[in-house]
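Sample entry (130 residues):
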Amino acid sequence: MKKLIVVMFAMVLASGAFAQKAVHGGGVRVIRTRPVISVGVAPFYAYSPFWGSPYYGYPYYGYPYAYRYNRPTKLDLQIADIKNDYQQKISAARSDETISRAERRKAIRDLKHDRDQDIIAAKRSYYKMS
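Predicted structure, serialized as C-alpha cells:
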C-alpha cells in the first residue's frame, strides 16, 4: 500500500513537471501549458497561501514593495499644473461661439503651442536649478 501511494505521488509530481511545453519561434521562447488531468487526487498544493498555491504569493505578491509609491517631484507637479491651466483655456476656446471656426482652431493651436513651450521652459528651469 505504501508503494502504491509513493508511486501515485511520484506520478502527480511528474505530471506537474511535464505540464509545460517549450515552443521556440522567432528567437523568443514561449512556454505553453497543457491541462493536467488527475482522477480523484487534489494537486499537492492545497489552495492555501501557506502550502504554495500558485494563486497566492508568500504572504503577498510584492510584499513589502507593493504598497509603496514614489512621490511626484516638483517638476511633475508644475507640469501637471501647466497642463490643467491650458486644458481649461483650450476648453474655453472650443466653446467660444463669438469667433469663427477657423479662428477657434487657430486659437487652440496657439494655446497648445504655448503649453508645450511653457512645459519646456519649466523643465529647463528645473534642471538648471539642480
